[in-house]
Amino acid sequence: MSLVGGPLLVVVGIALVVVTVGAVMGGPRWGPRWVGVVQRTVLVLSAQVVALVMVGLAVNDWGSFYGSWSDLFGGSTGVVTTAAGGHSAWDESHAGGGAPALQPTHWSDAKQYTQKGELGSVELAGRRSGQRARALIYLPPQYFDAADSSARFPVVEVFPGYPGEVQQLVTRLGFPSALLDGIRAHRLRPMILVMLNPSLVLPRDTECTNVPGGPQVVTFLTQDVPADLHANLRVTSGGWGVMGQSTGGYCAAKLAMMAPHQFVTAVSLSGYYNARHDSTTGDLWGGSTKRRDLNDLDWRLAHLPAPAISLLVTIGSLEPGIEGLPGAQQFIGLVRPPMTARLVVVKNGAHNFHDYQSVRGTALAWLSDHLGAAGSQQPAFQAQGRQGDPQPG
């Protein structure tokens, strides 16, 4: 039974009712008095445990923090680490010249592609890094325009937080739907969304790092994913964007700063800008202070030339500490030309999906305005008639 969804909640809910009624009624009365005391104690404790499990499952179902039992207990995640030289499962699937054979979802059927676009799933393989990851890819309606079948589209890589699920970028944050609405209203340019989890070896949080002797996550996301998409889709070779929430926000800012030749713009939704080291990450730097510094975005801005990128930083006013509003303000204060940045503070905002959604339109508009043409760092499109942007802090 799946860890997320209604069936498990129903089963646990029934169990909660049963043990709660048993605890209230005292259970069957038989045997010595001490037996009854033990029975009732067990029933009360069981009711409490089941209630906690019920709350945990409900919160996980709402937030999609763990998508499967293997995610929860650290087993197989469906992401495979391979030796370099692997090839994508879709390399041979679009010899006809159209869109590759993405594994279909319920987003749309083939007859609706020219109106809604396509949302499909595919495995991306890393020739340089040896990593693999499954991604959800959204192709806008314009991709299927027969009158302009040679057009190439800029790409935005989109990341959830840790240990979030890629699906929540669709179900909770609604990025494909919001992009489609913006395209139809002529507020947003057509772009391809590549939604994938940057935590390639769950349950470990690699913080989008090339770990010495371990997963080469920066290489996968900045070189392998672009190469795989360029070989299989009509995408521009540069001028891409990258966006993420929380840990995904740190990844987005970090990848743009490290690979400005590929990513000219980025959006960090409640991200942070320091190099994290805790029980979920382990040693990401191989004991090297230099490696740690190079993965600390404040340090990079203070000690290295600023990259020619544009960055949107959003944060809730109630998010505290170095990973909250004070940390975001500190980072913004270090930005200097040719890098540009804007800080948007969500009034009374916190670290949750509701507040990410409140800046979703601003984030997509920023990307639309700042995505470049192939090989360019200049905007190729200016949105029109945008409304409802939160005020910058």
TrEMBL record:
Q: Which GO terms describe its molecular function?
A: acyltransferase activity, transferring groups other than amino-acyl groups
Family annotation (InterPro entries): AB_hydrolase_fold, Esterase-like, Mycobacterial_A85_antigen
Please name the source species: Allobranchiibius huperziae
Q: What is this protein called?
A: Enterochelin esterase-like enzyme
Q: Which UniProt keywords apply?
A: Membrane, Transmembrane, Transmembrane helix
Does the entry feature the keyword Ribonucleoprotein, yes or no? no
Membrane-crossing residue ranges in chain numbering: 6-25, 37-59
Pfam families given for it? Esterase (PF00756)
